[in-house]
């Protein structure tokens, strides 16, 4: 059985930092292995809180079925740094952070840098209930506690419902996502970043929560046979409509979702 989501998320960064400290020499030459090892540790998707059903706090592991609304400028970040808090020096990974914290006195950059894609994500507009339920069926959707013991180290005043966020995806050579692409995202939620970036990037970051993506899967077109309301003559008509809509939206999954919305509202 998967742990409750607040327990799965607790101390996530400490665990991620310890993993880096134990294997840093290997990860510096191959940071992809760092994400692979973290994903093995958090392979159970029910450890992630669904943004479709739950209010959340920064520091949670979260999941969502969402759509790319806009592509933002990429970010460059240090793979790891030595940070000084009071007299204590600790090595921390930079892969899953926007900053190293306000209480840090000094940061020593180790000189290894990478980049990550940044996408403005929105929950899939008009998605039918059965489609979201298909995503949520493997999620932990129990009500989340908000007591002080739930997420030690996080002082957010209260949980909130999130309908859009900035997804930060490590650049491992995979091509960028296109606008309107529909993806299932699993990652680590952080609070809006204030005072960083320039222009539009700064504006987006200051308004929206960020999700540092651990893994992401593009949603393929749902098979026609999975929709029980279609009659025997519908598949060919449906396929033709999806092709026409996809030629405008540029994405088959988005076209399929939009057609579901039209059918559900007529």
Could you give a short description of this structure?
The chain is built from 7 helices and 9 strands.
What is the CA-based Rg, rounded? 20 Å
The overall pLDDT, averaged over residues, is: 78
The largest pleated sheet is described as: 5 strands, mixed, barrel
Number of helices: 7
Q: Would you report the number of β strands?
A: 9
Query: Multimeric state of these chains?
Result: single chain
Structural class of the helices, strands and pairings?
Answer: alpha+beta
Q: How many discrete structural domains?
A: 2
- Which strand order spans the largest sheet, edge to edge or round the barrel? 2-6-7-9-8
- What's the N-to-C terminus distance? 41 Å
- The rough form would be described as elongated
Q: Please indicate the percent range of residues in DSSP E strands (runs of 2 or more).
A: 25-35%
What is the string of helix and strand elements? HHHEEEEEEHEEHEHH
The percentage helix is: 25-40%
Poorly predicted tracts of residues: 141-156, 223-228
């Amino acid at each position: 059985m998967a742990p409750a989501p607040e327990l799965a998320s607790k101390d996530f960064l400490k665990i991620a930092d310890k993993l880096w400290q134990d294997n840093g020499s290997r990860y510096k030459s191959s940071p992809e292995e760092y994400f692979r090892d973290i994903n093995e540790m958090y392979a159970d998707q029910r450890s992630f809180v669904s943004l479709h059903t739950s209010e959340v706090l920064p520091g949670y592991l979260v999941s969502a079925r969402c759509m790319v609304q806009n592509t933002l400028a990429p970010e460059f970040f240090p793979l790891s740094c030595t940070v000084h808090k009071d007299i204590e020096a600790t090595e921390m990974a930079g892969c899953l952070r926007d900053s190293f914290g306000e209480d840090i006195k000094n940061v020593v950059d180790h000189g290894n840098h990478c980049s990550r894609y940044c996408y403005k994500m929105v929950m899939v507009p008009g998605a039918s209930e059965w489609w979201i339920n298909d995503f949520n069926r493997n999620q932990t959707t129990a009500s989340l506690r908000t007591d002080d013991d739930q997420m030690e180290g996080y002082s957010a005043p209260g949980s909130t419902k999130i309908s859009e966020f900035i997804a930060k995806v490590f650049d491992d050579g995979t091509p960028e996502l296109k606008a309107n692409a529909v993806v299932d995202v699993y990652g680590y939620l952080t609070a809006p970043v204030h005072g960083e970036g320039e222009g539009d990037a700064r504006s987006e970051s200051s308004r929206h929560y960020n999700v540092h993506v651990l893994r992401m899967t593009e949603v393929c077109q749902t098979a026609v046979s999975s929709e029980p309301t279609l009659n025997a003559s519908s598949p060919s008509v449906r396929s033709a409509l999806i092709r026409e809509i996809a030629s405008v939206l540029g994405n088959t999954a988005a076209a399929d979702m939009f057609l579901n919305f039209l059918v559900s509202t007529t």
